[in-house]
């Protein structure tokens, strides 16, 4: 009889899989030469992950977010999501109103 894993077990498995993927990506990065890493970074620097167009840095309440100049997508760097989450709901609504087309 197959038992469904508990929520804790599912979270543990997901964390384990994430750590394995993270280690695999770190090994791939380690194997790249410095020149290859620099070329890849220059190719993708400030480009929209969705459409590939240029990203513009926009500041809102001292939080710098990246907005696509073409599709209007909004991208957050590491730590920015936590900063946005600290803004109260009313301010958060205003933030997203700024980026609507």
Please give a structural write-up.
A three-stranded antiparallel β-sheet has the order 1-2-3. It has four helices and three strands, in the order H-H-E-E-E-H-H. With 101 residues, the chain is an alpha+beta fold. The radius of gyration is 19 Å and the shape is flat. It folds into two domains: 7-44; 55-99, no CATH class.
List the helices and strands and how they pair.
Layout: H1 7-31, H2 34-44, E1 55-60, E2 63-68, E3 74-75, H3 80-86, H4 89-99
Antiparallel strand pairs: 1-2, 2-3
What brief labels describe this structure?
101 residues; alpha+beta; 2 domains; 3-stranded antiparallel sheet; 14% strand; flat
- Give the biggest beta sheet: 3 strands, antiparallel
Strand count: 3
Main structural class? alpha+beta
Proportion of β residues? 5-15%
TL;DR?
The chain has four helices and three strands. With about 100 residues, it is α+β, with helices and mostly antiparallel strands. The chain has a three-stranded antiparallel beta sheet.
